[in-house]
Amino acid sequence: MNKVKVTVCSDKKYTITVDHATSLWELTKGLMFTQKSNLLMQFPSKKNISLHNCFVFYPLHLVFFSDDLTVQEIGYMKPFHFYTSRSTHKYCLELGNVGKVPKIGDKISFT
Predict the structure, then answer these.
(1) Which of 65, 81, 102, 110 has its CA 20 to 30 A from that of 7?
(2) Contacts (Cβ under 8 Å, ≥6 apart) of 28
């Protein structure tokens, strides 16, 4: 997986370094068996995103957005639990190691 910098334009602009998952294997493995980490999941097309937190031993803040890169949904998942997005999205940002979490309406960019 490649590392990318995700910039969040909120009240104040800030940057988070994350792994970037695009392949089927990377999307399937996610953050399983990792230390506290952050992951940007990029799916081939918009869909309801179903996630599990099995073998991830820390809670995750979930941030969902689509092609316009505006945060549309926020979620939270405890270890060994499941979460399904309420609507379709192309991206999910899993945050396990971050102090500040984006809010609905915030703009996201990544490089």
Answers:
(1) 81
(2) none
Torsions phi, psi for 43 (to 5 deg): -90, 155
SS3 content of the chain, % helix, strand, coil (to 5): 5, 60, 35
Q: Which amino acid is at 53?
A: N
- Structurally, the chain folds into a number of domains equal to 1
Nearest to 75 by CA among 47, 100, 104, 46: 104
DSSP conformation letters of 24-61:
HHHHHHTTTT-SS-EEEEEEEEEEEEEEE-TT--S-EE
21-67 pLDDT, tens per residue?
999 999 999 999 999 999 999 999 999 999 999 999 999 999 999 89
Q: How far apart are CA 2 and CA 18, in angstroms?
A: 8
